[in-house]
């Protein structure tokens, strides 16, 4: 099954943090995250804000259309810088709101903000699918962290974890018309990898995957699905994955070129600037060590893709 939806967005949303910090409510399930002493919180928050600003400047210089919104100071939301976990947008005008595991991350959901973003770019929201009531049943599905979407072929890749529940995934698939490729993937400690997008990334023509971390029973099935839809499969080691080499994002620039966005940590592991993957015109990198260390996520997590249709086309 294929669709008219593009794999790569031409607009992304970034949230300027108001209270970035290591989140104690997410640390147990995220082995990429480091805790920091309370006395360092202000320093960490300031450093993350500086890294965020450099990212926005770098994206603008690379001709990437980025909408910047401010986090609200209260209530404090240490992970607000990662908006891709609480919503996704789709080419038919659908917005999906997701069930979040950590109670303080549920505070990040701001449907009104999405209306503002759509209006600012002349886009239309035609329906909202709210999956967040699944939180009451202890079922979680954290957006395009839990889901790596092949939007063209309507495949949702998902590695199961405390933050990625099969029942919530089934509801997403039923409502959006996706088929799931579900599998188990483990970190170096043998714990479930918390989000699929730290071990798998899909571009238009390529995939970057840490096949090594997929359990033996699932590995060939996942790789076969990727090979069926991508001309280039780039396998990285677990050590490379832990440097966020899979937490990257391909986007379209304003001029229609293809750009891969990656942190300097990820680029150091991938070396895409020396050998870009098929179909990629530019590789854009930025140093975000504070955000990676204390947030446990990298550049892809910081950008929520906007796929909504033009208001005129929708109406």
Rg: 18 Å
SSE series: EHEEEHHEHEEHEEEHEHEEHEHEH
- How much helicity do the residues have? 25-40%
Tell me the structural class: alpha/beta
The multimeric state of the shown protein is single chain
| Strand elements, count | 15
Largest sheet: 3 strands, mixed
Report, as a whole number of angstroms, the end-to-end distance.
Answer: 26 Å
CATH topological fold name: L-arginine/glycine Amidinotransferase, Chain A
Into how many domains do the coordinates divide?
Answer: 1
User: What's the average pLDDT?
Assistant: 93
Total of DSSP H or I helical runs spanning 4+ residues: 10
Q: Which CATH top level class fits?
A: Alpha Beta
CATH H level: which superfamily? Answer: L-arginine/glycine Amidinotransferase, Chain A
Low-confidence stretches: none
The assigned CATH architecture is 5-stranded Propeller
Global outline: globular
> What proportion of the residues form beta strands (DSSP E)?
15-25%
Strand order of the largest sheet: 2-1-15
Give the SSE layout.
Elements: E1 11-16, H1 41-61, E2 65-70, E3 87-89, E4 94-97, H2 103-106, H3 111-120, E5 127-130, H4 143-146, E6 148-150, E7 155-159, H5 166-176, E8 179-183, E9 200-202, E10 206-209, H6 216-229, E11 232-235, H7 238-241, E12 249-252, E13 258-263, H8 264-270, E14 282-286, H9 289-295, E15 304-306, H10 311-314
Parallel strand pairs: 1-2, 4-5, 7-8, 10-11, 13-14
Antiparallel strand pairs: 1-15, 3-4, 6-7, 9-10, 12-13
Helix pairs in contact: 1-9
Outline:
This protein has 315 residues and is an alpha/beta fold. Helix content is 27%, strand content 21%.
């Amino acid at each position: 099954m294929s669709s008219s939806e593009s794999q790569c967005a031409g607009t992304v949303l970034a949230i300027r943090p108001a209270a970035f910090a290591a989140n104690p409510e997410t640390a147990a399930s995220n082995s990429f995250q480091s805790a920091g002493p309370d006395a360092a919180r202000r320093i960490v928050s300031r450093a993350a804000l500086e890294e965020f600003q450099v990212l926005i400047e770098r994206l603008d210089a690379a001709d990437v259309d980025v909408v910047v919104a401010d986090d609200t100071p209260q209530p404090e939301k240490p992970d607000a810088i990662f908006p891709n976990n609480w919503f996704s947008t789709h080419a038919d005008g659908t917005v999906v709101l997701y069930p979040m595991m950590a109670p303080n991350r549920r505070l990040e959901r701001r449907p009104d903000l999405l209306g503002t973003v759509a209006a600012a770019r002349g886009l239309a929201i035609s329906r909202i699918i709210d999956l967040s009531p699944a939180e009451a049943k202890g079922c979680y599905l954290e957006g395009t962290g839990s889901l790596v979407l092949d939007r063209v072929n309507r495949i949702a890749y998902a590695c199961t974890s405390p933050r990625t529940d099969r029942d919530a995934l089934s509801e997403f698939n039923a409502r959006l018309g996706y088929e799931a490729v579900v599998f188990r993937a483990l970190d170096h400690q043998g714990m479930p990898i918390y989000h699929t997008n730290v071990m798998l990334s899909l571009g238009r023509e390529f995939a970057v995957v840490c096949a090594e971390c997929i359990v033996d029973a699932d590995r060939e099935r996942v790789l076969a699905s990727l090979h069926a839809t991508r001309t280039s499969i780039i396998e990285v080691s677990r050590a490379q994955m832990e440097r966020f080499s899979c937490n990257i994002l391909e986007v379209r620039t304003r001029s229609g070129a293809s750009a891969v966005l990656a942190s300097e940590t990820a680029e150091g592991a991938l070396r895409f600037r020396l050998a870009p993957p098929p179909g990629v015109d530019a590789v854009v990198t930025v140093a975000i060590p504070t955000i990676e260390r204390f947030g446990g996520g990298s550049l892809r997590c910081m950008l929520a893709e906007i796929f909504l249709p033009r208001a005129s086309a929708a109406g």
